[in-house]
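Board notes, transcribed. Complex of a protein with S-adenosylmethionine.
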Amino acid sequence: MQEDRRFVRPRKQLVETLRKKGIEDERVLMAIGKIPRHKLIDTALHTKAYNDTALPIGMGQTISQPFTVAAQTELLNIEKGEKILEIGTGSGYQCMVLCELGADVYSVERHKELYHRAKEALHELGYRAMLKVGDGTLGWSTYAPYDGIVVTAGAPVVPDDLVQQLAIGGRLVIPVGDDTKQMMLRITRVSENEYEREELADFKFVPLIGEKGWGGS
Ligand code: SAM
């Protein structure tokens, strides 16, 4: 595909910004340096496409801040060929980063319109992932267990279905908190009934809406 020269330099600068902010995994930085983020947002926002900020994608949702995408991906510690579930497909950006790392990607989005747009964008840019419309707080049991699960919206609590859909050794990276800020958690399934929980930095996400999320029982 023909590269638009206007975006080459801003994308390189974004990679350097993420490096300075502490992202160390070169595979993640390479993915960010390759994916045409501008193609996932409205043309009116193109000048901001490679700023390290979240941007609107419609339906009151956002394409995540590149630093957040990079940090969550780094925390997943992905090996090539691992099966990864993403909750909150949104624009498809995080999904593409996971594909670039060689993961076998599954992703759930609750908004049908965003699902359709992400599906088209992934196809157009040559990425393969399994997508569906649904309530991601329930995971995607059909393809479980997963080596990694990444939740890209803020949850009030850790949904138990997600924990149960982790393989032994699998990692769940999820922001949990109230509607003002969330703590990034990494939960690793050490054995059938044993989990290790790490509390990492504070982040700010749009809410995870669903049965086991905000608005659920
Ligand atoms: N990963 C996305 C990206 O790279 O563009 C981030 C999108 S946004 C920060 C979070 C997404 O989570 C939104 O698209 C929202 O509709 C979705 N979402 C919220 N609750 C959800 C749920 N229960 N199941 C699936 N998707 C959900």
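The chain has six helices and nine strands. The mean pLDDT is 95.
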